[in-house]
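ingest -> fold -> write
write: protein_1
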Amino acid sequence: MYILVAADHHHQAHPRILVRMKSPIIFIFSLLLSSCYAAVQDFCVADFTAPESPTGYACKKPATVTVDDFVFSGLGIAGNTSNLIKAAVTPAFAAQFPALNGLGISLVRLDLALDGVVPFHTHPGGSEVLIVEKGTICAGFVSSANTVYFQTLEKGDIMVFPQGLLHFQFNSGRILAEAYASFSSASPGLQILDYALFGNDLPTELVAATTFLDTAQIKKLKGILGGTG
């Protein structure tokens, strides 16, 4: 491949110079493009036969992936709210929806019966965006500076809960409430404060020393939430 290069204006006697390019630019660009394309991995559908690691599940072999891996129908059915907190959370995390593995997104459905509540809890692995589909939900979170942000949400309202901060949802209306939440992680994790304090075998005396609650109340809550000690 040849290109014409004009002579320097200080040397006008010289004719134009033919310069041969060693490698055509278009050819090099096409090589780079094809190399980048070959390196792209479109998805990493979870392989549940392999153990989960802190970075997620191993990938299924592409030949074994089907369209069913990319479809999840579990959020179309209301959860069972016949429990202590009168609430049901139906997850669509990587563990239930294998195509989400490695994508940094997930969803849940939240059903709250009358007076239903999702107690103070955190998601260590991701931030949450909640949208109310039905009913009225009082929701809020506490910042690391112990500032409280809460609001009563109606149908169509959206609220965000930053990653790792304690937050709650409570049905403050007169009908069943329904909401959906998305997360910035395929496996955001969940730790409910009440169960962390009273649903384990930490000795009552230690719980009392760290929470300033009296031992009788702690033992009562341990009895309700399944704790011992």
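write: protein_2
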Amino acid sequence: MTVQYLHLAEKILKEGNDRGDRTGTGTRSIFGHQMRFDMADGFPLLTTKRVAFRLVVSELLWFIKGDTNIRYLLEHNNHIWDEWAFANYVQSDAYTGPDMTNFGLRSQEDESFNEVYQSQMRQFTDRILADEQFAAEFGDLGNVYGAQWRAWQSRQGEVIDQLKAVIEQIKHNPQSRRLIVTAWNPEDVPTAALPPCHVLFQFYVEEDKLSLQLYQRSGDLFLGVPFNIASYALLLHLVARETGLKAGEFIHSFGDVHIYQNHFDQIETQLSREVKPLPRLWLNPEKTSIFDFEVDDIRVEGYEPHALIKAPVAV
């Protein structure tokens, strides 16, 4: 797994196009790439830097529960969606604190501003946890993944639970070519905090093995993609558990896959590190339904990666 990831990093650095982007940070990107990971080789968790697997788990369970409010994530000490909710808050009339315009870039470039920003962010997340009404108003991210997977709104006003429906199809019609869940709803794109990056996934059953392919329109190679790989590999294992199948391959297909220009040094550090063995996934044997799993029911064993590498998030 790690070798394929590093080859992609080298390809982007050497052959990629330098482009502007929504955040103003700048990227180097390529268009169109695919990686394949056989679950028999181990769980695909990057080893050239530590990936916080419990954050992967709590985020995926957040999606599976159909939740779109960061309060659940904060309760599990998961802060990976904080910036998106905070951006909505500071742009609202309710916010009366210091100017937070372009806080993502400014916090990287101005140390004094970063201290103010971090203070405001702590106040915001603390209030999300403590104040249910405030959380309802400013912690919700709109129709992001959880809503689209579990409560897609049809034109007829019906609610479609795509995830539950596809699991039933795998159980009863495994050779179907329609084993698909989509998160890309054009109607909701303008109002979502972040339009879905991993937009569509499809299952495939062959004999006793279940495989999953993801199409990702936009992939942040350093920060996002290691999480995405682990998240969808975990989703594959959980659905395989419920449907009585073995986890086969995770196939990861990209549109625009890129490295932010302020992540080049971090990527180079990874390229200089030795690849280590992949860990193994442990799932609580007492749980069978994907909808019953909690964070403590899932862990990796034998994960001994290189040290964490920090990098700023582009918002």
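write: annotation protein_2
The mean pLDDT is 94.
The CA atoms of residues 140 and 185 lie 18 Å apart.
pipeline exit 0
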